[in-house]
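User: Let's play a game. I give you a shape written as tokens, and you guess the letters that built it. Ready? Here's round one.
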């Protein structure tokens, strides 16, 4: 006897547990959602503190806060990325840390180095090169393919900064 012809899959044939619902998604993502709320509140508190600290906190203190928050988000992203239950939160934390990485160098200039007369083009070169390496490492470790685009942008920025640092004549620049 020939096997019966395949029947089209109907909604009734799909078990209830396999149907998508917002409620079941929220339950499954509850740890990540809680981490998102905590990260948002932490970021907002840090931004308000850095923006409103004025002379009460030194430039070194504000720079340290930016550096610690950036490192904290990168480390939290790396840690959470390893666990499937909170992998989504890990990707978001890593993205926040990746976004803050070049801003650490801007904070270093604004809060520490500008008063000392540090050359901004040297800091631009250093920050761009570091960011390119950082994004490249994320890609190589398999933690995000889209960071390759950021690595390319950072490499282009490093190229431009190197031209500025070395005072390359305009005629030589492509």
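Assistant: Ready! My guess for every position:
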């Amino acid at each position: 006897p020939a096997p019966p012809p395949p029947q089209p899959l109907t909604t009734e044939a799909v078990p209830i547990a396999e149907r998508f619902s917002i409620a079941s998604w929220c339950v499954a993502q509850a740890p990540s959602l809680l981490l998102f709320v905590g990260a948002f509140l932490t970021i907002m508190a840090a931004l308000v503190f850095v923006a409103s600290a004025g002379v009460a906190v030194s430039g070194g203190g504000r720079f340290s806060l930016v550096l610690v928050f950036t490192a904290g988000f990168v480390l939290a992203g790396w840690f959470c990325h390893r666990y499937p239950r909170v992998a989504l939160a890990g990707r978001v934390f890593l993205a926040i840390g990746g976004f803050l990485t070049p801003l650490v160098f801007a904070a270093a200039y604004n809060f520490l180095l500008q008063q000392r007369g540090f050359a901004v083009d040297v800091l631009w070169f250093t920050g761009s090169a570091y960011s390119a390496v950082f994004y490249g490492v994320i890609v190589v470790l398999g933690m995000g393919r889209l960071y390759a685009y950021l690595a390319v942008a950072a490499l282009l920025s490093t190229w431009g900064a190197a031209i500025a640092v070395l005072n390359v004549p305009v005629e030589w620049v492509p």
